[in-house]
Known about the structure:
Blueprint: E1 2-6, E2 15-19, E3 29-38, E4 65-73, E5 85-88, H1 101-104, E6 119-123, E7 127-129, H2 136-139, H3 142-155, E8 164-168, H4 172-183, E9 187-192, H5 195-203, E10 208-211, H6 218-221, E11 232-237, H7 244-250, E12 251-259, H8 273-276, E13 281-284, H9 290-303, E14 309-314, H10 318-327, E15 333-337
Parallel strand pairs: 8-9, 8-11, 9-10, 11-12, 12-13, 14-15
Antiparallel strand pairs: 1-2, 3-4, 3-6, 3-15, 4-5, 5-7
Helix pairs in contact: 3-4
Amino acid sequence: MRVFQIQDDWGFDNLRVAERPDPKPGPGDVLVKMRMASLNARDLIVPERGYGRATGDLPLIPISDGVGEVVAVGDGVTRVAVGDRVTPTYFQRWISGDPTPDRFASALGGPLNGVMADFVRLSQEGVARVPDYLSDAEAATLPCAALTAWSAIVTHGATRPGDRVLIQGTGGVALFALAFAKQAGAHVTVISSSDEKLERVRSMGAEATINYREVEDWARASREITADRGGYDNIIELGGARTLPLSLRAVRPGGTLSMIGVLTGLNIETSLGLIVARQVRLQGVTVGHRDGYEAMLAAMAQHEIRPVLGARFGFTELKEALDHLRTGGHFGKTLIQF
């Protein structure tokens, strides 16, 4: 079968198409013929071994998110059947409960081999059926970005009708967070550097938008939006070092900062007093478990929530797709069609 793998050494130059033997399912395993994959920001980090030893060993098949059809099952498989359309779960061994080192060490696309292969062998515990209303392209976007947003908005954020939610940017997690926050009845503010993208999120339900290139102090600019409660109930923090100090000024006393991204850097300088004196909760969000994923799929089916899709590339165009993602000009999920 075809695979796209990082081989010989780390780095984008070492991403290559190769051949591997077709896998066969063992007891409790399923064999999935992949149809589509989608990209996340982490897929730009993995080829450079950006997670250190936790990235895995070479050769490594990258990319965590995709959809396919079950074409064979091993003994004892009961969760799915041949012919079912499924997505893998991001963490293969995190079924429910709290995270553990072992559960965090089971991410697809690094350290475990990912979905850039014609066939993928997975444990039956690491797949979930796809709702019928979703296309292959839509389903392929869900395991990482959608569940991360669901965990931030619903699982940890417990968003309720009337809550004020601020979302940073218009990437994959951000657009899913907008959809889930609106489903929960929240008032949503989105910040972005692009007026065109802000216009698009307004058409998707965002009540307020701020261009942070034009209004650098967006924390001050947002005070009128949250005047009735003194700040946002939940801020989807995707920026990191540069945005966190502003988020701390924009969140309400007792509110939550859902820490997801570090796009502007890892190391921060800010006043801890803003956290302690106002009892702000910093909630790290690293995707989520299978139970949460299946709850999210049920909610999406109930409301027929559809992901926002972006550019499509062929299987052999993975490098071009990653370059497209790296530019940051995309809107919607970048897809790989097998």
